[in-house]
TrEMBL record:
Name of a matching Pfam family: Glyco_hydro_3
Transmembrane segments: none
Keyword line: Glycosidase, Hydrolase
Span of domain Fibronectin type III-like: 718-787
PROSITE patterns with a match to the protein in the record: GLYCOSYL_HYDROL_F3
Protein's UniProt name: Beta-glucosidase-like glycosyl hydrolase
Single biological process term from Gene Ontology: glucan catabolic process
Record SMART domains: Fn3_like
Molecular function (Gene Ontology), one example: beta-glucosidase activity
Species annotation: Echinicola vietnamensis (strain DSM 17526 / LMG 23754 / KMM 6221)
């Protein structure tokens, strides 16, 4: 009845008015009592400042600590809960982030039994968020970082090819699709940050982490990096299906002296800015929200305390507005490895003052940073700015409103049939056909017998690469299984391992040769391994320790992967003896390489008619390799790293600076296989090149147009590559530089017209005064199938 009364009439009922006013004031008071930082409608910057103003010094320092996450849960049968270690870390250290919570591998000692499946993972991360929200003063949600270079490094996820294989696809759109799938799997389980992409240039193949990179070239690394960032972060990190991308490792980490992982790097500032920094700059421009420092030093300054790189270049010049995280233990390394400070407190002070916001491992900052602030070595302003950057991404990601994930979605959508099919697609596009003499490939499916031989022919873990979680055998298709799947039961497929990767005590070379002699064709699968085992010892940083085997002990296959640097690039163990014995039988031989770095292939190249390079192809590698071997997929992979003839040539990369290198007394200075190389079952012809330049040197536009024709009877994808040579510069220029590429499907007997546009950014140089400019003069355009197989040449002049 009250709605029919006027305001004046309501005044006749003072009790009612009092009650209404009281309720209004109560509601207003509740709204006011809700802190600004918990109000979703308030702008993020205001929420950050409100929360920052409420935090104690200890709480601020705690937000910058990223502890080892796999210790933070307990699993009993199918039940998962937070561990005592987690509760203590939250209450005593006020931690804000975890790393590798869902990681499983021999280093973490998490197995298929003791680790978490996707549903349990989601339950575990939910339990952690619930504890933090309900048992801390401010209720700041956790942010969880996970390793995601070629799949989320957790049990039950999809394993894609490692990065060197991803780059070999020369297909950024495909890699973006893959990155989105990886991000979804990590986010569904409660992860928020994906470590990757690795943007280090790999110009030192002895280095143990080549497999984690996209190769030797700044431009293709930039394009792959952009694709990964776009796939990881999507249109919004608050989507519930995307993660923050962390760029690794800032910077020049991939060219350590002597190939020793994490040691000093000697590059000049010009080379740093022209070659090593551009991939990071491109990824930052794509919107990357996190950057990881590198272990190495550059010209005597450790990357984790290099304020010029982290503040002047990354933030001021490039406009980076995310947060910087140290690599695991690299803050402590300022004292223990680089010896640029005598105390742990001094290391924390150097790192945060240089621009490091987050401590991966949790023992670099913590009490050390607290002491540095209290002693005046770190200002309150510097500390607040670091905390501000971390809090901002938590708000931007929507964690204060949506801290939990749905375990049922994790159970049903992680490693879906769609993602498995995508893994096969990426794997087969990554396969590089190095040699195909007399068209031995593709193989006929209607042969009587196939011998499958070699240490990597039926080895699950050897084909997955480093940073891979334990796998049920049924989740991974080996080369042997892939060939059997392809030819069916009508063809006899017989297998002999022949030898191990490194160990020589179990070789069966005679047995392998005998099998090959009785077969129509022999597929010999050789290479390397990054597979860790539970007997391997590890550094504090998770890098594997190289150790000599005791007498009578079987030697691990592992010869690549973080920490396993090489003196030579030769095939180890009895592998060369094995392929020599098989080749001597006269049976046609196809060598398939599964590995993480370029190896010495001189003898194989000279004597074996067909060579296929698959890098580490991931869980669908066997099917993908079989697709290529039998012609169900026409190979389209191309090398993104040069294959040297000898370690005596190193460094070997295509875009070195003038002058052109001359041959050695012992042989050619050219690599065995050049950057961009890769064969197809189709034949392509290039013609009708047109190069048109307009505009002055300050703002040029160059149009490059040509035609590619498939002159065979087989449909094929061609990777067309455009290189530019600056014929005269004020500083010494590279011999040639990749500036554009495109993977294009050209049906048999048809042609495709290609147009590339070049701008000032593609033609600029870093002048003698260290300023970027485009100089007038002549430029050469080179179009072809690789850096050594140039089909068309043209010129243009900038006035």
């Amino acid at each position: 009845m009250w709605r029919h009364l006027s305001f004046s009439s309501l005044l006749k009922y003072p009790l009612f008015v009092f009650m209404c006013l009281g309720m209004a004031f109560l509601a207003y008071g509740q709204e006011e009592s809700e802190p600004l930082y918990k109000q979703a409608t308030v702008p993020v910057d205001q929420r950050v400042e409100d929360l920052l103003g409420r935090m104690t010094l200890e709480e601020k320092v705690g937000q910058l600590s990223t502890l080892l996450g796999w210790k933070m849960y307990e699993k009993r049968d199918d039940h998962v809960k937070v561990s005592k270690a987690f509760e203590e870390a939250v209450q005593q250290q006020h931690i804000g982030m975890l790393w590798a919570t869902l990681r499983a591998d021999p280093w973490t000692q998490k197995t298929l039994v003791t680790g978490l499946n996707p549903k349990q993972a989601a339950e575990a991360t939910n339990a952690m968020q619930k504890y933090v929200l309900e048992n801390t003063r401010l209720g700041i949600p956790m942010m969880l970082a996970e390793e995601c270079p070629h799949g989320h490094m957790a049990i039950g996820t999809t394993v894609f090819p490692t990065s060197i294989g991803q780059a070999s696809t020369w297909n950024p759109a495909l890699i973006q699709e893959m990155a989105a799938a990886i991000a979804l799997e990590a986010r569904l389980q409660g992860g928020h940050i994906g470590y990757g992409p690795v943007l280090d240039l790999a110009r030192e193949p002895r280095w143990s982490r080549v497999e984690e990179t996209y190769g030797e070239d700044p431009y293709i690394n930039s394009q792959m990096g952009r694709a990964m960032v776009s796939g990881f972060q999507g249109e919004s990190i608050a989507s519930g299906k995307n993660v923050i991308s962390t760029l690794k490792h800032f910077t020049a980490y991939g060219v350590p002296e002597g190939g020793h992982n994490g040691t000093s790097v000697s590059v000049g500032q010009r080379e740093l800015h022209e070659s090593y920094l551009p991939p990071f700059k491109a990824a930052v421009a794509e919107g990357a929200l996190s950057v990881m420092t590198a272990y190495n030093s550059i010209d005597g300054v450790p990357c984790t305390s290099n304020g010029h790189l982290l503040n002047d270049v990354l933030r001021d010049d490039w406009g980076f507005n995310g947060f910087v995280v140290s690599d695991l233990g690299s803050i402590s390394g300022l004292r223990g490895s680089h010896h640029v400070t005598e105390t742990a407190e001094g290391a924390a002070q150097l790192a945060i003052n240089a621009g490091v916001d987050s401590d991966l491992g949790g023992y670099g900052f913590g009490k050390n940073l607290l002491a540095a602030v209290q002693a005046g070595g770190v200002s309150q302003e510097v500390l607040d700015e670091a905390v501000r950057r971390v809090l901002k991404v938590k708000f931007d990601m929507g964690l204060f409103e949506n801290p939990y994930v749905d375990p049922s979605k994790a159970e049903s959508l992680v490693r879906s049939a769609k993602h498995i099919a995508l893994a096969r697609k990426v794997a087969r596009e990554s396969v590089v056909l190095l040699k195909n003499e007399n068209d031995l490939l593709p193989l006929r499916k209607k042969v009587n017998s196939i011998a499958v031989i070699g240490p990597n022919a039926d080895n699950t873990y050897n084909q997955l690469g480093d940073y891979t979680a334990p796998q049920p055998n049924e989740n991974v298709v080996t080369v042997l299984e892939g060939i059997k799947n392809k030819v069916g039961k009508d063809v006899r497929v017989n297998y002999v391992k022949g030898c191990a990767i490194r160990d020589t005590t179990q070789s069966e070379i005679g047995k392998a040769a005998s099998l090959a002699a009785r077969s129509d064709v022999a597929v010999v699968v050789l290479g390397g391994s990054s597979a860790r085992d539970f007997d391997t010892e590890y550094e504090e940083t998770a890098a594997a320790k190289v150790s000599e085997a005791e007498e009578g002990q079987v030697i691990s296959d592992m010869e690549s992967g973080e920490g396993f640097d090489r003196m030579t690039l030769d095939l180890l163990g009895d592998q060369l003896k094995l392929v020599q014995a098989v080749q001597a039988t006269g049976t046609p031989v196809v060598v398939v390489l599964i590995k993480g770095r370029p190896l010495n292939l001189n003898w194989i190249d000279e004597h074996v008619p067909a060579i296929v390079d698959a890098w580490y192809p991931g869980q669908e590698g066997g099917n993908a390799i079989a697709d290529v071997l039998f012609g169900d997929y026409n190979p389209s992979g191309r090398l993104t790293i040069s294959v040297p003839r000898s370690v005596g040539q190193l460094p070997v990369f295509y875009n070195y600076r003038n002058p052109k290198r001359h041959d050695y007394v012992e042989g050619s200075a050219e690599p065995l296989y050049a950057f961009g190389h890769g064969l197809s079952y189709a034949d392509f012809e290039y013609d009708n090149l047109e190069v048109t330049a307009s505009g002055m040197a300050g703002s040029p536009t160059v149009r490059v147009h040509f035609q590619v024709s498939n002159i065979s009877n087989v449909d094929g994808e061609e990777v067309v590559q455009l290189y530019v040579r600056d014929e005269a510069g004020s500083t010494v220029r590279p011999l040639l530089e990749l500036k554009r590429f495109e993977k294009v499907m050209v049906p048999a007997g048809e042609s495709s017209k290609i147009t590339f546009m070049l701008t000032a950014e593609d033609l600029q140089v870093l002048g003698q005064d260290m300023n970027w400019l485009v100089e007038p003069g002549s430029f050469q355009v080179l179009v072809g199938r690789s850096s050594r197989d140039i089909r068309l040449e043209g010129k243009f002049i900038l006035e």
